């Protein structure tokens, strides 16, 4: 969730879509904030092991502000290729633009915001943008998603999907992979017809990297159903135990940025109409 919050911070600061360079610079500043260096404009911050999360951690983990991570990001065509719902929010109702800035989750979130959206249309938008899937196993992703949805269509509820998911869809080379997590998040959203409560309960109880699976499924269901569809006690508890940054304030600021971007597009459209 920290990654997503930092991405929202970068978008709010830019007042619109960000580039890979914007994102790398923001993550670099986050690293400086984590080190306590105050000559940089601060980013979001919170209590806990920020330094360990920002920089290399053991032999296998490249921290968010490590030089290898920043160098790879600077060479990326998409600023938010992983855990990329913020790219879907800033491109709400425009899955084509979301596919340019992010990956599968971004496309699903952007499509879910459309007023006429259905769970089928959200899944359809993902299949319409195979180019947004990158990284190891990208050529397998759509096939795995299609196969899991075919099984989900025969299940009475999301809980019946657990057994075949464990039997056929786990990735042997690591729990936290998009090949494993994102298809289940999408399948949970689809089989629960977009309802946030059942989607989240079904996703969080599947095990494996359940926090990421549930977060992804919840982002899509939230874009589809709206914030008021979540149980009020869930919202209040989340805000109470995660006081910094103020996520309610972040949501309001993101809304303002989306509206500003809409107004800019409308002004351009008006100018073009006058030319005609």
Note down, in words, how this protein is organized.
This protein has about 280 residues and is mostly helical. It is built from 15 helices and no strands. The protein has helices at about 1-15, 20-35, 50-55, 65-75, 85-90, 95-100, 105-110, 120-125, 140-150, 160-170, 180-190, 195-205, 210-225, 230-240, 245-275. Helix 6 packs antiparallel against helix 7 (about 105-110) and helix 9 (about 140-150) packs parallel to helix 11. It is globular, with a radius of gyration of 19 Å. The N and C termini lie far apart (about 45 Å).
Short account of what is shown:
The protein is mostly helical. It has helices at residues 2-14, 20-35, 50-54, 67-74, 85-90, 95-101, 104-112, 119-127, 138-152, 162-168, 178-191, 196-204, 210-225, 232-241, 247-275.
Produce the secondary structure layout:
Blueprint: H1 2-14, H2 20-35, H3 50-54, H4 67-74, H5 85-90, H6 95-101, H7 104-112, H8 119-127, H9 138-152, H10 162-168, H11 178-191, H12 196-204, H13 210-225, H14 232-241, H15 247-275
């Amino acid at each position: 969730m920290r990654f997503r919050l930092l991405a929202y911070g970068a978008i709010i600061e830019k007042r619109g879509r960000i580039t890979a360079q914007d994102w790398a610079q923001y993550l670099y500043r986050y690293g400086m904030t984590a080190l306590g260096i105050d000559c940089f404009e601060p980013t979001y911050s919170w209590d806990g092991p920020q330094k360990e999360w920002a920089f290399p951690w053991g032999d296998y983990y490249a921290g968010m502000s490590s030089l290898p991570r920043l160098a790879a990001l600077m060479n990326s065509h998409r600023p938010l290729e992983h855990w990329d719902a913020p790219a879907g929010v800033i491109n709400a109702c425009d899955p084509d633009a979301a596919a340019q800035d992010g990956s599968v989750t971004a496309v699903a979130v952007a499509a879910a915001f459309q007023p006429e959206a259905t769970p089928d249309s959200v899944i359809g938008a993902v299949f319409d943008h195979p180019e947004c899937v990158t990284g190891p196993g990208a050529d397998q992703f759509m096939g795995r998603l299609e196969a899991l949805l075919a099984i989900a269509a025969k299940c009475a509820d999301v809980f019946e999907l657990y057994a075949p998911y464990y039997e056929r869809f786990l990735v042997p080379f690591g729990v936290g992979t998009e090949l494993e997590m994102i298809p289940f998040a999408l399948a949970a959203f689809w089989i629960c017809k977009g309802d946030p409560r059942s989607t989240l309960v079904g996703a969080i109880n599947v095990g494996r990297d359940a926090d990421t699976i549930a977060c992804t499924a919840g982002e899509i269901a939230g874009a589809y159903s709206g914030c008021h569809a979540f149980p009020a006690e869930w919202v209040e508890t989340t805000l109470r135990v995660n006081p910094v940054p103020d996520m309610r304030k972040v949501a309001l600021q993101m809304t303002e940025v989306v509206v500003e971007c809409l107004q800019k597009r409308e002004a351009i459209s008006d100018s073009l109409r006058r030319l005609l």
